[in-house]
């Protein structure tokens, strides 16, 4: 087979931020396991991906990796492209530079934007729109996979038309929860839309030995993140609430507490607030801190918890999919949508950080979870097998799209 032919037989995944965010890692890991085709991942950090589960195992890699070019490392190129963009009125030039590896001589007929909640962040919107347009101008079919989009985004003045045009450029959009799906139905033809659970519901788990102090079946998993701290409406309330919760668990129950990180980027590291909690409570003998690991290893710890309280979406997806009763401390539509689809409502299952006004709110939410944990576990045991089966349809739809494109070519 020629090199060109081999390249054309690869499906391209882009907008992957790197595996230091284990949610990003979990999406790519799960999608790659679903697909029977070779996958090339255009990544923000090849070093991160090699460190975790996307790396080669023995002689087989889960996927191929190509790193994006970054202007922060090439100041002169940044200046030159900025001038070119202004003079030639060519905004997509930045994307062609960033994705030069795949905009050169190589051609990939299908490019999949690893959706997640990328469209919820203002800092990412421009690149998302430019990338989709640039791929389309090159004749590449694009798919938006596993996305959550806040319906309020469609009401923002000055953005609605551009966003509608962008979303209609995708050949297919797969929403991972029903709130996003219903909002998209108003601006995108239904034949382009699918409602399929997040692919990470299919993530495999790897169970490492438990650390001292982690009692399987009697340990509550806790995850906190700088992201929810950034979205709190009352300064400092997140950590005050978590500390009050840990005091309550230690005083009122016999459960152990496992502090579990799920994003370890220097600029956004769960281990920072987690270490603060650990230092305050380590002398109780009731708290353990889980070290960084692959998404599969972290799921292995989460799956052995009796309950889970998490801020990171894919930490909570790991818990849900392992049938662990879970409370989400959320900040966006994704938490509400996923909980609503699993339970019929997000009330009591999601506590929005913006609503935290006193330290008792998180304790009350935990207490409700604790009171109904057995009912919740039974419900999850009933619905999760079907939910996971549905999640595999992401791979089936991509395979259908791929086969259709190959026939046309």
TrEMBL record:
It comes from the Bacteria. GO terms for molecular function: transferase activity. Residues 82-332 form the Polysaccharide pyruvyl transferase domain. The keyword Transferase applies. This is Polysaccharide pyruvyl transferase family protein. InterPro entries: Polysacch_pyruvyl_Trfase (IPR007345). The keyword Manganese does not apply. Keywords: Transferase.
């Amino acid at each position: 087979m020629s090199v060109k032919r081999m390249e054309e037989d690869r499906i391209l995944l882009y907008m992957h931020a790197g595996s230091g965010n284990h949610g990003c890692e979990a999406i790519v890991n799960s999608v790659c396991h679903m697909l029977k085709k070779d996958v090339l991942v255009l990544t923000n950090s090849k070093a991160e991906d090699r460190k975790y589960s996307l790396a080669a195992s023995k002689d087989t890699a889960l996927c191929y990796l190509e790193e994006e070019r970054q202007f922060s490392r090439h100041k002169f190129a940044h200046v030159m492209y900025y001038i070119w963009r202004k003079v030639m009125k060519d905004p997509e030039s930045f994307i062609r530079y960033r994705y030069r590896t795949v905009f050169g001589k190589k051609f990939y007929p299908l490019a999949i934007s690893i959706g997640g909640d990328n469209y919820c962040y203002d800092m990412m919107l421009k690149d998302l729109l430019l990338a989709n347009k640039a791929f389309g101008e090159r004749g590449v079919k694009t798919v938006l996979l596993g996305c959550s989009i806040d319906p309020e985004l469609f009401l923002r003045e000055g953005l609605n038309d551009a966003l509608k045009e962008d979303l209609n450029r995708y050949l297919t959009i797969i929403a991972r929860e029903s709130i996003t799906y219903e909002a998209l139905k108003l601006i995108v033809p239904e034949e382009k839309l699918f409602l399929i659970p997040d692919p990470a519901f299919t993530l495999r788990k790897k169970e490492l030995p438990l650390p001292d102090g982690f009692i399987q079946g009697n340990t509550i998993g806790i995850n906190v993140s700088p992201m929810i701290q950034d979205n709190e409406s009352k300064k400092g309330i997140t950590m005050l609430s978590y500390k009050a919760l840990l005091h309550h668990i230690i005083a009122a129950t016999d459960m152990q507490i496992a502090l579990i990180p799920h994003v370890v980027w220097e600029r956004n590291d769960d281990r920072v607030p987690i270490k603060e909690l650990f230092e305050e409570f380590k002398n109780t003998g009731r708290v353990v801190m889980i070290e960084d690991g692959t998404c599969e290893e972290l799921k292995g710890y989460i799956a052995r918890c009796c309950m889970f309280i998490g801020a990171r979406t894919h930490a909570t997806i790991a818990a849900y999919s392992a049938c662990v009763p879970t409370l989400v401390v959320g900040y966006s539509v994704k938490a509400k949508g996923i909980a609503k689809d699993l339970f019929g409502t997000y009330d009591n299952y999601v506590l929005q950080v913006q609503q935290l006004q006193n330290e008792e709110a998180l304790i009350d939410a935990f207490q409700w979870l604790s009171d109904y944990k057995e009912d919740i576990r039974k419900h999850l045991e009933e619905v999760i097998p079907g939910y996971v089966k549905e999640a595999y349809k992401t791979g089936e739809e991509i395979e259908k799209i791929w086969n259709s494109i190959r026939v046309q070519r």
